[in-house]
Amino acid sequence: MNGLALFSRRDDSVAKGEPLLTVENVSLRFGGVKAISDVSFDIRKGEVRAIIGPNGAGKTSMLNVINGFYHPQEGRISFRGQTRRRMRPSHAAAQGISRTFQNVALFKGMSTLDNIMAGRTLHMKRGFFWQLWRHGPALDEEIRHRRVVEEIIDFLEIEAVRKTPVGKLPYGLQKRVELGRALAMEPDLLLLDEPMAGMNLEEKEDMCRFILDVNNAFGVTIALIEHDMGVVMDLSDRVVVLEYGRKIADGAPDEVKASQAVIDAYLGVAH
Ligand SMILES: Nc1ncnc2c1ncn2[C@@H]1O[C@H](COP(=O)(O)OP(=O)(O)OP(=O)(O)O)[C@@H](O)[C@H]1O
């Protein structure tokens, strides 16, 4: 894997190892339910950061706050040093934050190619009518987008299914197409919500390899939610642990694994 036209839009305003995204004292409530309570942590440029915790701990809510889908009642999010309370998901995507979902969210009747192409929409400078005209600059632009999409397809080893409607693909491949669509946005920060859920061992190994390649070869910072502890410990540089919406541990995988609070949370010890 080399020479990809992908990720030409690298943003070097944050140095590797410095905080790319900071979550400060974030609290989120749904009516009487406190999904997140006063949580702070950061995601450093270039790392793989896992967010783990038992069911209902607030992990997906946290991803939704980071990508602007939910607006916290308290606290702040800073991305590349810019602080905000409210940001729409489309704005987050344009800033370089893209994500995948717990349940695959693709256009099931559309081909692999077209689904990944949909991820490029944000990069299309020219409007819909230009695209219809398919002439001159608009055509050049479309050719360039197609080339990037073909490179993603090569990278993810899904050439054989490029024309197949994604609804007909096995679940593991659908998850890979969804990763492809998120990559097509050329993110600086990629949020993955349970990327291995429902996969068999071989599919999980493939997905782990792709995640590490995306991180190493393209320098994309990754935050992921994952329930498989083996995967979390293998993939992540640092792990933040939530329980009942609160942060109970934060550190290197080995530190977190040895934390009594984490052991208790996973064993279901009453507080
Ligand atoms: N849209 C919503 N409306 C009301 N309550 C919500 C909503 N989304 C999440 N919650 C509640 O917030 C809490 C945290 O949920 P969240 O889905 O973030 O947890 P999670 O750690 O991702 O769980 P899981 O591992 O089961 O996916 C739960 O009590 C959940 O019921």
Automatic annotation (TrEMBL):
Q: Which GO terms describe its molecular function?
A: ATP binding
Is ATP-binding among this UniProt entry's keywords? yes
User: Pfam families under this entry?
Assistant: ABC_tran, BCA_ABC_TP_C
Keywords from the UniProt entry: ATP-binding, Nucleotide-binding, Transport
What does the record list as coiled-coil region(s)? none
**All residue ranges annotated as the ABC transporter domain in the record:** 21-269
This chain's protein is named ABC transporter ATP-binding protein
**Species classification:** Bacteria, Pseudomonadati, Pseudomonadota, Alphaproteobacteria, Hyphomicrobiales
